[in-house]
Structures are given as C-alpha cells and as structure tokens.
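As a next step, the fold was encoded as tokens, giving this record:
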Amino acid sequence: MTELPTAGLPASSVVLITGIMAAGKSTVAQALAERLPRAVHIRGDGFRRMIVSGRVEMGDEDEREALAQLRLRHRLSAQAADTCAQAGWTAVVQDIVIGPDLAAYAAMVRTRPFHVVVLAPSPATVQAREAARPKTGYGPGGWTPEVMDRILREGTPRTGLWLETTGQSPAETVDTVLSRLGEARVAG
C-alpha cells in the first residue's frame, strides 16, 4: 500500500464518506482511517442499530418516523465526530447522507475542517457488490440501486469530492481521496 502524505488533513478534522448502500462506504472509511496517524471510524448505521424497540426502517409504512430516526442517527454521528475531533482525532464518518440531508448534515458538524467524499459507483457495480455481501440493504419499499443512484445523482447537492469508483479497489479509492483532499473540503 502506498503511503501518501496527509498534510491536507490535520488531526481534529472530520471526513464524511457517503453514497448509496453497497457503494463501498464502510470499506473505504475503514481503510482511510487506518491510513491516518490518529483516526476513528464512526459508523452511522451503528446508531440505527442502537434502537432496540420501535425502530422503523426506511421503506416501512411510517415514513415520517423513519425519517425522524434517520435524522437522529445523523445528529448523533455528527456529535460523535465533533467530540472525537475536539479530543484530537480525525473522525471518519460513514453513512448514507444523500439528497437534502447532505446540506443538513454539513450544517450539524461544527468541526473545521470538514470534508465530504461521495462514492458514486455505477448501479451495476452496486448491484454486484450487494449480491456478494452477506447483509442486504435493498428490498423493502421499492429501494433498488437504480432508484438510490437517481436520488444520489439528481437530488444531492454537488458538494465535496464526488468519485466514480466503478472498477477501483478500496486502496485506490483511498489513494484518490488523500491525493484530492482539497476538493473534498467543504468548510473551514
């Protein structure tokens, strides 16, 4: 693995890795955190799983409650990222933050600098990754890679670093993130 300079990413910063389900967010966020000298990986989905009873998934009948729980999870991950950054860590947050939620998330993170990396592989690549992994993200409510990709590409503000990662390994994606970090900086 090539060691790249991290001069553009000081400790006490936040990097959000986002994209649709099976875009590679978890793998890339973990690999990025491992390449930094002092970093934490905050998994947004962990906050969803903390809801023991009363959890409503996106695509379930109660859309209002599902959105409220999604926004709670975003607030919690933003607060966790800020807390880690205040303690001198680079917080690499990974979650599905697309559509208008991306601007709302950026407003919640207080740490500067704040970076956004959007992973945008083709729907066919996402479909293949989804089929190869043990967990499933698509199914209820008509969610498909094509539908989610459309929401991502047509409804998400073009902020931060957008990467078409079809055909890239996680290591190549991390190399790209580190070499183009200035493009990912959205605040501070």
Notes: Residues 14-187 form a domain with the Rossmann fold fold (CATH 3.40.50.300).
